[in-house]
Amino acid sequence: MTALVEAHGLTKCYKQVRALDGLDLVADNGHVVALLGPNGAGKTTFVRSVATLLRPDDGSLHVAGVDALKQPQEVRRLIGLAGQYAAVEPTMTGRENLDMIARLFGLGARSARANTDVVLERMGLVEAADRRVKTYSGGMRRKLDLGASLVGAPKLLLLDEPTTGLDPRSRIELWETIRDLVSTGTDVLLTTQYLDEADQLAEQIVIIDHGRVIANGTPDELKTSAGQDVVEIHARDGHSLGALASALAQLGNSEPRVDEGTRRLAIAVDAGPERLTDAVRIVAGLGVEIDDVALRRPTLDEVFLALTGASPNGASDGETA
What is residue 88's DSSP assignment? Predict the structure, then answer.
């Protein structure tokens, strides 16, 4: 089966900065592929390369089997792109926005109207279709922008941080929309700084740092690859966190992470239920009151931090896109 996106040795330099440094990536089709990495890791540069908005300096890149470097026009017929911010015309109605984009894709008037109706239904915007976009909420505008990228019936949809700035309800609604798109045959490649979003949506997660792929797999595979569990303790009194952190440091190979706001402490430990018993014994010996103690698998945030040494929205060396 032809890969959704296949890149080998992809390189892109901006003066002295190597935004892509020999990147190798194979993204499978038939599901959501999430691209993660710290700021400046090369995510946006890669997406812009796939979208044929910039040309890599070296390497090969194929989209659905089409050579993106030799046949960029053909690739553009296969893709839709929704950037980080909704790019819709507020003085036009939702229907007019979609119809205009469809005509720009080269569709005739009848086909443009038909595709517009389908997209409005898919996005749940039928009732608001004939209202001016300036009256739409932020979530509705984001849906319309996503719809505009679909009106040309792309094989691959590129989403660059699609839920940036949305409230929790709008995020969840957009997640459902993305799942529906995949179930009806549209492949999705997205970048995000929300690791819970990648965990919810993606079957394949690719982590990039300094222009290279450093991890690739399903969410479960990445969590398992960490090779450690996490002991998490919720202290009843925030003043006891220091003593807990000092005492529990012996359980793991790194310092415990302390969140004073939630009175929680977490430490990575070698996998095994006996670590929970050890933690309970240490807490009992201190005589500290706690509300909860648990042994769990690492979250994607913790895997990400272990692999990159940065939080999902933390800066790294390299270009800032």
Answer: -
User: pTM to 2 decimals?
Assistant: 0.77
Residue 160: phi and psi, rounded to 5, are -100, 100
CA separation for the pair 38, 25 (Å, rounded): 17
Tell me the average pLDDT across 105-118.
92
Q: Which residues fall within 8 angstroms of residue 312, CB to CB, at 6 or more apart?
A: 36, 38, 193, 194, 195, 301, 304
The single residue listed with the structure tokens 């609604």 is: 173
Q: What is the pLDDT of residue 89?
A: 92
Residue 119: strand, helix, or coil: helix
Task: Report in angstroms the alpha-carbon separations of 175 from 71, 114, 202.
Answer: 32, 25, 11
pLDDT tens digits, one per residue of 203-248? 999 999 999 999 999 998 888 877 678 899 999 988 889 999 999 9
- 């500290």: which residue's tokens? 288
Give CA torsion, residues 13, 18, 19, 25, to 10 deg: 100
